[in-house]
Specification:
The chain has four helices and 14 strands. It is of the alpha+beta class. The chain has a seven-stranded antiparallel beta sheet with strand order 1-11-7-14-6-2-3. A three-stranded antiparallel beta sheet has the order 10-9-12, with no helix packed on it.
Length: about 240
Amino acid sequence: MTITTLIPPYIEPSQLVDALKTRGYGVLGPAGLASFTGGAGFEVIKADWDNLPPDNFLKDGGRYRRRRHSCFIVDKAKVTQVTHRAHYQPLSYNALHGGMHRLFEAMLPSTTGQAVWAELLLAISQVCSSLKGEQPWYVEAHQFRIDTLNGIGRPTPEGAHRDGVNFVAILLVARENISGGESRIFEFDGPNGQRFTLSEPWTLLLLNDETVIHESTPIQPSKAGGHRDTLVLTFRSGGFLEPL
């Protein structure tokens, strides 16, 4: 069987706001991301993905996900890391892991202390403010490694979903010795969808969480050591998600 890998529909950074407004997502290739953030290199943060602790909250019994999590507030030109806190989603947004306070280990200063880290959060926040008005943005950052040591790895075990925020950014950090991991995006209240595979490191997918739902298909190894590394950033106005 031939597996077709569809190339993402890359756009220029100047087109991001319109893409999010009209179709709910936009994808920047590595060159576009470099232009978007001012040209800084992201390789300085890559090594941290090799030492992520296991995700001990997977309710499907899997051992395929490793992660770290930290929270930030971006206000105008200032990025502030807040006191370490648990990650929370209501069941209405995450039927598998919703309703839980999941306290993961915090991200390391070797990532969050790099200049490129603040530049990335600031650049995305400017796009968010262009669509929703200038305001503080409450950002949750998740470093993920999905591995295939035990066979199949699931980037989104909860299936197609929204995150309960305004915008979601998915940065592909690495993709090694795997097949699968296709990104699928669907209209939240319509029939249309799109599918493609993020295959080039430092490709950025930005989603309007109010208008689309998304998922990534399972991965399987093509050789030993197969894994998929991503950085997921959620941007929410008004505060972090909390229980009602």
